[in-house]
Amino acid sequence: MNLFDPARDDVGALAALHKDSFSPCWDGPAISSLLAGPGVFVHHLPGIGFVMTRVAADEAEILTIAVTPAARAQGHGRALLAAASQEAHARGGARLFLEVATANQAALALYRGFERAGMRKAYYAGDNGHDAWLMQVQLPLPPGRNIP
Predict the structure, then answer these.
(1) Cα separation of 139 and 96, whole Å?
(2) 117 touches 132 (CB < 8 A)
(3) Best CA proximity match to 34, nearest among 4, 59, 2, 57
(4) Do residues 64 and 40 touch, judged by C-beta distance below 8 A?
(5) Per-residue buried b or exposed e for 124-135, using 16+ beta carbons within 10 Å of the residue's own CB
(6) Residue 127 φ/ψ, nearest 5 degrees
(7) How many CA atoms lie less than 13 Å away from 97 in the CB half-sphere?
(8) What are the structural domains, with CATH classification, of the chain?
(9) How many Å apart are CA 116 and CA 98, to the nearest integer?
(10) Catalytic: which of 111, 115, 123, 124?
(11) Which of 35, 77, 78, 123 has a C-alpha 20 to 30 A away from that of 107?
(12) Across all residues in the chain, what is the average pLDDT?
């Protein structure tokens, strides 16, 4: 797994992974725009998936985590989440937040250990208006604790 460098690495590869994972998806310009923002970083498993995270002050947020369908249920999402949480804490994050569709059972299993902090009604407008849980976890994770 590598820390993505937009000056060196191919943003199109991230867009392809996102397209393979989500509908609607983020295209290259959307991903480039996010990468240009302050505190944004990406961990990338080429051909498998990536996680995009932002740290602002002492809060960190998973902006997206994508694993191609053929590589799911093999621990890649957990590895990406672990890398993002470690890097977010190293950059000053004390709490990690994310949104997840209330009906996405696979993602909810991945985020086990996160606490529900609220709900965003009709958050996923492109996905039949699904609601999203706002989830959070304290950083750093306790020693020996798996993501989450």
Answers:
(1) 7
(2) no
(3) 4
(4) no
(5) beeeeebebbbb
(6) -120, 55
(7) 14
(8) 2-138 (3.40.630.30)
(9) 10
(10) 111
(11) 35
(12) 89
Q: Is 87 in the active site?
A: no
Question: Which residue type does 17 have?
Answer: L
- Give dist(CA 54, CA 33) in Å, integer: 13
Distance (Å, rounded) from C-alpha 38 to C-alpha 66? 21
Pull the structure tokens for residue 85: 């949480």
What gap in Å lies between CA 30 and CA 18, rounded to an integer? 11
Residue 67 contacts residue 47 (beta carbons within 8 Å): no
Interval 38-46 mean pLDDT:
95
Please identify which of the residues 59, 61, 87, 99 carries the catalytic annotation. 99
And the tokens for 144?
Answer: 């020996």
Known catalytic residue at 111: yes
**Rounded CA gap, 88 and 12, in Å?**
24
Per-residue pLDDT of 59-103, as tens digits, reads: 999 999 999 999 999 999 999 999 999 999 999 999 999 999 898
